[in-house]
Amino acid sequence: MIVFRWILGVLGAFFAIGATVGFVLFIAFDSKIWLDRARRFRHWVWLIGLFWFNVEVWGRVAWTIWHWGK
Questions:
Q1: Long-range CB contacts (< 8 A, 24+ apart) of 46-49?
Q2: 31: left (phi over 0), alpha (psi -120 to 50) or beta
Q3: How large is the average pLDDT for residues 39-48?
Q4: In the chain, fewer beta carbons within 10 Å around the N or the C end?
Q5: Is the pTM of this model over 0.90?
């Protein structure tokens, strides 16, 4: 599970940096395409965060159900 968290953490950080850099480039050059890219990266960050949350919660639910009667 630690490897899973690290992979999602690194991917999330990568996309967050991409969103930040894209937004800074949009502010600096007033280019609409960089705003669109920053939004797309931000959406990926949300997707990764929600995926991580779902796996953590439902993994714990599955673990609890599996070990319920033991």
A1: 48/8, 48/11, 48/12, 48/15, 49/12
A2: beta
A3: 98
A4: C
A5: no
